Amino acid sequence: MTMLRAASPHDLRAIADLGQRLEEIEAWHGGDKTVLRAALIDALRQALDEGHAEAEAALMQDQNGLACARRLSRLTDAVVRAIHAVTVRHFHRVNVPSMGERLALAAVGGYGRGTMAPHSDVDLLFLLPYKQTAWSESVVETMLYMLWDLKLKIGHATRSVDESLHEARGDMTIRTALLEARFLTGEKKLFEELEHRFAAEVVAGTEQEFVVAKLAERDTRIARAGASRYVVEPNVKEGKGGQRDLNILLWLAQYVYGARTPDALIKVGLFDSAEAAMFRRCTEFLWRVRCHMHFASGRAEERLSFGLQRTVSERIGYARRDGMSSVERFMKRYFLVAKDVGDLTAVVCAALEARHAKPEPVLDRFMRRLRHPRRVRLGASGFQVDNNRITVTGDDVFSRDPVNLLRLFWLSDRHTLAIHPDATHLARRSLKLIDRAVREAPEANRLFLDILTSRNAPETVLRAMNEAGVLGRFIPEFGRIVALMQFNMYHHYTVDEHLIRTLGVLARIDAGEMESEHPLSHQIIHTIQHRRALYVAAFLHDVAKGRPEDHSIAGAKMARTLGPRLGLDAAETETVAWLIENHLVMSTVAQSRDIADPETIRTFAANVQTLERLKLLLILTVCDIKAVGPGVWNGWKGELLRTLYYETEPQLTGGHSAISSHQRVAHAQAELRKALEDWDEATFDAYKARHYPAYWLKVDVSRKIKHARFIRETEAAGQTLAIATGTDKFRGVTELTVFAPDHPRLLAVMTGACAASGANIADAQVFTTTDGLALDDLFLTRAFEDDDDELRRAQKIARTIESALKGQLRIADLVDQRRPRTPKRPFNVPTELIIDNSLSKNYTVLEIAGLDRPGLLYDLTTALGKLSLNIASAHIVTFGEKAVDAFYVTDLIGAKITQPGKQAAIRKAVIAVFDDEDAGPG
């Protein structure tokens, strides 16, 4: 049949089979259009199914994503051409067509490029000679209905040539789509007229307008999809460093230079052969990933989620190696490709600037924080300022003195000037000059340490160094973690990006920009003695990730080697090593230990040893958590860290550490008595006798006041059960206080009500009064910005708790309804249980870690309640998919759990909770 072009050696067998089937259908349908249509749809559906299966099989065998995308496009071409041919031949045949009875059919947009993912949209332009006629309307309608019957996602427009040009002038999206228009079938002269007039009447003279619009559009898209190319669940199509960035490069090259292919980019001088090869590699890899994603998910899934990462890595054939899992190796490759895409973008932008096609404000969009003085004396041979950016005076600047590769970025920071793309390009091509001699050169290390500890914009400059490859080449330990992803839900960025962001947070605290958010860090940062050590530790604290050895210990070893090389003295080097080895300690103690327990503070203080280290560790901990990703830091974590700091400081300075527990209790009681001046002596004496010493030592005075008034009001009303709610916007928590008769399952009921409501518990404090009543505090992570909304949620949870305690509903049923019925998450988190009797004087500490899920805390508290354990406090930490919960417990008579048999029972019950994810013990 003429409707299908001759198959090439790389075409799918399904295309040739389709031609044969259609010839048979046309031969026997007997003029019955209903029969013809049904047979045609069946044949086309079969061809699509077989073609997709063939394309997937070929992809699995040759792992060529670009070839797969082209096969799928040619398959779609065959289907569209077949529908058009049958439509004009049988459904709307015109023996002698007039001009009004002609049309051209073109592929536009992504389909116009001749590449498609398995579930890509099919964008079509029905091109008319002038206005639409009854015939053309009928043809378009018939074709569209058949395409929709095939379940294809169609994007279409029906326009004349004049209308297309008019729309393109006013709409940049339509202009871009026409730029990629590709003739499919129909009146070819009509399509050629559009091509010629589009070039002459739309493109000519509008190059600068198009460049500015496309780059602004890119900025908006990236801001929406994730500003960093190193987000751990990237959008392969729309994200930074993804396919759309490659598309933009070709759009700009085609619009400005008329270049459509990598080879054409070489001819017009945009790329050299190595860059053109890089473009091809990036294009193929991204198509490979995207096609695998579509095939694996069965839909147009563009976000490379954690679940798909494992699947795609297996489909491509990655295996575990060098201490990295198959997923981590695959994602490192992905991020390195994304980085290459960024390099290619810079090359094209530099060329566009040379043609004066792009105004300065757009070129400098990544350096908005930096000042741009008009005249600057650099004072360094080989460099000059060009259009407010630092560039080189010749191609031999780096070969003449390789230290200039560091000096380029030092000058950028010192003068707060952006670096010209030409200079960055030359730096990338000169990376091999950074050898051992350069790494050990005192001047090179001095320049680098100046950049690292700068008070200007170290984060911006370090990121530019990383993008250029200079950072990883100069610090090989850092180079190993470039583009390294950790396969978990906690970390939002690759390791190198996290380290650079950590240093950026530190620089902003140092500059006084974060006083309201981090008041204590702001207060103490200018009192520290080892500022340089703190900056180096922030930069290196995770540099040993991805190795078999514990990264904190391995990182400390690296710091002891790197410190002297960078110019640190012995004391600074040892401080850096200590900070790296202990960079997780303060966060762990603050979030998963009872910091009101004196033993916790004594143990932590013994590790820290000096006030200087305490200050440095606090600031580093804040910066580390803050740089993990959006939403990870909150006021509650800040409050815990500040409390730990304030409790530990006296231990290190010889302050109140000598005061006995009895004296501290008496002081706390006197403090509350002063606040409750409206209470008479007898009432207060009776009240203070109701609380055990642990209550007076653990609870801050503001909460003691709330508790006292709450309990008095409850009992005055004759109630035996009451629940108070409140919000704390600064700490980012909502407080739930329950006063009720003590019951072994009380905490389980409370955590179950929270789980049933989808509330996340940040912490729990549990107290029993001397007269057998429970006073329990739950601290919930905020879900709403507005206090009224948050209070309504808290009151709903309170009503659920009250109803459960009165026997009006079963918490277990509510929790079961909340449990997900979807497959398990794609993470393997081993269950861990540590039973420790040394962390607290009065309690056994159970530290439980495992895969998080809705209702987990309820399941654990229920299991511990069945073992007749009293839970004094619970400390809940979630690191993405990993839950780490610490419970301070005793037996029913208040003793620690020391019997091996009892410990074995606890271990068995905890493991059972994690082994049974579909139903809790309740």
TrEMBL record:
InterPro entries: ACT-like_dom_sf (IPR045865), ACT_dom (IPR002912), HD/PDEase_dom (IPR003607), HD_domain (IPR006674), NT_sf (IPR043519), PII_UdlTrfase/GS_AdlTrfase (IPR013546), UTase/UR (IPR010043). Residues 1-377 are annotated as: Uridylyltransferase. Residues 735-812, 845-922 form the ACT domain. It catalyses: [protein-PII]-L-tyrosine + UTP = [protein-PII]-uridylyl-L-tyrosine + diphosphate; [protein-PII]-uridylyl-L-tyrosine + H2O = [protein-PII]-L-tyrosine + UMP + H(+). Its cofactor is Mg(2+). SMART domains: HDc. CDD domains: ACT_ACR-UUR-like_2, ACT_UUR-like_1, HDc, NT_GlnE_GlnD_like. Keywords: Hydrolase, Magnesium, Multifunctional enzyme, Nucleotidyltransferase, Repeat, Transferase. It comes from the Bacteria. PANTHER family: BIFUNCTIONAL URIDYLYLTRANSFERASE/URIDYLYL-REMOVING ENZYME (PTHR47320), BIFUNCTIONAL URIDYLYLTRANSFERASE_URIDYLYL-REMOVING ENZYME (PTHR47320:SF1). Modifies, by uridylylation and deuridylylation, the PII regulatory proteins (GlnB and homologs), in response to the nitrogen status of the cell that GlnD senses through the glutamine level. Under low glutamine levels, catalyzes the conversion of the PII proteins and UTP to PII-UMP and PPi, while under higher glutamine levels, GlnD hydrolyzes PII-UMP to PII and UMP (deuridylylation). Thus, controls uridylylation state and activity of the PII proteins, and plays an important role in the regulation of nitrogen metabolism. Belongs to the GlnD family. This is Bifunctional uridylyltransferase/uridylyl-removing enzyme. It comes from Pseudochelatococcus lubricantis.
